[in-house]
Recover the amino acids of this structure.
């Protein structure tokens, strides 16, 4: 049993390096996120992520969308003061895709929205 545990802990596992992630951030005190219009997070993401981690440090429910301005497709919604992780995205979000955010029920006017794209 001890040999099995020693082998388990000695085996290296591959994981994405932290410095390869792309982090998008939006200070909603500077740029309010309203229910009336999408606010761009990125005009084009740098790579096709396998995971996306979204932290909504506002009190509003928001939605993340992708696509060209005026043709956004809702992708996910997240409540206020919450974090969500979405995996297995490489087929859905390709490099160059525009990401935007919009409030669902009330304007987000304080706090940050953070989106980490993991290769």
């Amino acid at each position: 049993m001890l040999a099995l545990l020693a082998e388990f802990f000695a085996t290296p596992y591959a994981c994405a390096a932290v410095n390869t992630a792309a982090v998008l951030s939006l200070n909603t005190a500077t740029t309010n996120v309203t229910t009336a219009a999408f606010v761009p997070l990125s005009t084009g993401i740098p790579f096709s992520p396998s995971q996306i981690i979204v932290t909504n440090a506002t009190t509003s429910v928001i939605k993340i969308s992708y696509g060209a301005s005026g043709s956004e497709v809702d992708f996910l919604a997240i409540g206020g003061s919450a974090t969500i992780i979405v995996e297995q995205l490489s087929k859905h979000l390709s490099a160059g895709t525009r990401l935007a955010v919009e409030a669902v029920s009330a304007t987000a006017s304080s706090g940050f929205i953070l989106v980490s794209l993991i290769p």
About this structure: The radius of gyration is 17 Å.
